[in-house]
Amino acid sequence: VRTSIPTAIATVLAAAATFLPVASAAPAAQVVRVTETDYRIALSTRPRAGGVVFVIRNASRHVHDFRLQGGGITRRTPMIAPGGTARLAVRLRAGVRYVLWCAPHADKGMRTTFVAR
Ligand SMILES: [Cu+2]
Predict the structure, then answer these.
(1) Cα–ligand 1 centroid distance for 60 (angstroms)
(2) Residue 81 has pLDDT above 80, yes or no
(3) Which residues pair with 46 in a beta bridge?
């Protein structure tokens, strides 16, 4: 008994439907909202290991930047004007302690750390 062509196509499509979503399912990056004030850095949640997008809002009356260092990487945003926002996409590693700071104001308290889990 030969399999009909429509049946064979349906079988292939069913197999593709099974595999394609898995192949294209990259995990969505975690969004962590950062609020910068004079002179604190506050996170909406503790960042997890994996892809993270920091969305930084300068809610103060001074210019700030946002820097991240840990696990062998250093990233920074441009200076962010009062009321402005910036984004920083990074890949964090589990168990690594990361430091977050604003370069002009770290010594005024704009510095914090976390360990990615
Ligand atoms: Cu600052």
Answers:
(1) 9
(2) yes
(3) none
Task: Report how far ligand 1's centroid is from the alpha carbon of 94 (Å).
Answer: 27
The pair of structure tokens assigned to 104 is: 């002009």
How many angstroms separate the CA atoms of 99 and 84, rounded?
22
Give pTM, 2 decimals.
0.78
Question: Does residue 69 have a pLDDT over 70?
Answer: yes
| pLDDT value for 27 | 77
Ligand 1: distance of its center to the CA of 91 in Å? Answer: 24
Distance from the CA of 78 to the center of ligand 1, in angstroms? Answer: 12
Report CA(63)–ligand 1 centroid distance (Å): 6
The answer to whether 80 and 56 are in contact (CB under 8 A) is yes
74's tokens: 């250093």
Ligand 1 centroid from CA 34, angstroms: 13
Please, are residues 65 and 88 in contact by the beta-carbon 8 Å criterion?
A: no
When comparing pLDDT for 64 and 14, which is higher? 64
